[in-house]
Amino acid sequence: MKTLLELKNISLTYQTLKFETKAIDNVSLKINNGEFISIVGPSGCGKTTILSMIAGILKPTSGEILIDGEVVSKVSTNVGYMFQRDNLFEWLSVYQNIMIGPKINHKKNCLSKSSLNSLLSKYGLSGFEKAKPNELSGGMRQRVSLIRTLALNPKILLLDEPFSALDYQTRLSVQNDIYNIIRSEKKTAILVTHDISEAISMSDRIIILTKRPGTIKNIMTIDFDKKLTPLDRRSNPLFNKYFKDLWEELQ
Ligand code: ADP
Ligand code: MG
To answer: Phi and psi dihedrals of 81, rounded to 5?
Structure first.
């Protein structure tokens, strides 16, 4: 498989007037096209910092990040970012929300209106184009948020604890939906989570970070049959073994 994203000896130190905080120390990692990666580690170990560097929002203090062999030097449309809060604009309709990115970018490299319409219908949102976000369920809101991110046609999706505000039942079904969308649209994804089960049920590999300054403690390969969805994985006998292994890694 082809390397899409490479982190080469990345370190980042935050500088404020009074303090220097070393958040990330010498992280190297290669991610293949189409992989689903999770990053887990203690709170404050630098997970969001890593995503911000991949998105080009923060520049590493040393080291470099390459996407398709090119150094990331500014915020790039190669990367789409999805947060814990869906950040939908409440006063705009579903359709207006997903058209925001293409509008701002003057449609450059974005999905066409017809592709966006087919994403809406494929993922259970047809008939809701004119609805406002507050008329949707939590799961539907997250799907709209993902389609809005996909509208910019990014190669890499960054997901920063996107399910943590959802109740347990909704979270399980949204994980399943989002996973299926990402797989069928053949995107590469990096998910930050502190939910061990979520990481195991969605990932090909799990990156385990140490406490701050974050370094890579271990990388776990998760090897389920490709056909299994996150929900299927949860009832697979391998799941408990991975859970125990990851639990021990995090102690
Ligand atoms: P995580 O997402 O793993 O919880 P973060 O990447 O948000 O961790 O933060 C890593 C460390 O860097 C934390 O100790 C945090 O306090 C510090 N940090 C994050 N953002 C800033 C900032 N803008 N200025 C100074 N320190 C920061
Ligand atoms: Mg964070």
So the answer is: -120, 130
Cα 27 to ligand 1 centre (Å)? 16
Question: What pLDDT was estimated at residue 102?
Answer: 80
Task: Name the residue of 17, 21, 195 whose CB sits within 8 Å of the most ligand 1 atoms, as the mutation to test its pocket.
Answer: 21
Are 25 and 122 in a shared domain? no
- What's the rounded mean pLDDT across residues 197-205? 97
Q: Are 138 and 170 in contact (CB under 8 A)?
A: yes
Size of the chain, expressed as the number of residues it contains: 251
Pocket test of ligand 1: the residue of 10, 45, 207 to mutate, having most ligand atoms within 8 Å of its CB, is 45
Query: Same domain, yes or no, for 24 and 134?
Result: no
Q: Could you write out the three-class secondary structure of 156-178?
A: EEEEECCCCCCCHHHHHHHHHHH
**Ligand 1 binding pocket, CB closer than 6 Å:** 14, 16, 21, 23, 43-49, 212
Q: How far is the CA of 48 from the centre of ligand 2 (A)?
A: 4
In this structure, are 124 and 235 located in the same domain?
no
Tell me which of 154, 187, 203 is where a domain ends.
154
Report CA(35)–ligand 1 centroid distance (Å): 26
pLDDT tier at 66, thresholds 50, 70, 90? very high
In the listed set 95, 129, 154, which residue is the last one of a domain according to the structure?
Answer: 154
User: 48: domain range?
Assistant: 3-78+156-250
Distance 24 CA to ligand 2 centre (A): 13
Global confidence as pTM: 0.93
Average pLDDT over residues 202-224: 97
Considering Cα of 54, then 189, then 195, then 210, what sign does the dihedral take? negative
Residue 234 has a pLDDT of: 97
Q: How many structural domains are present in the chain? A: 2
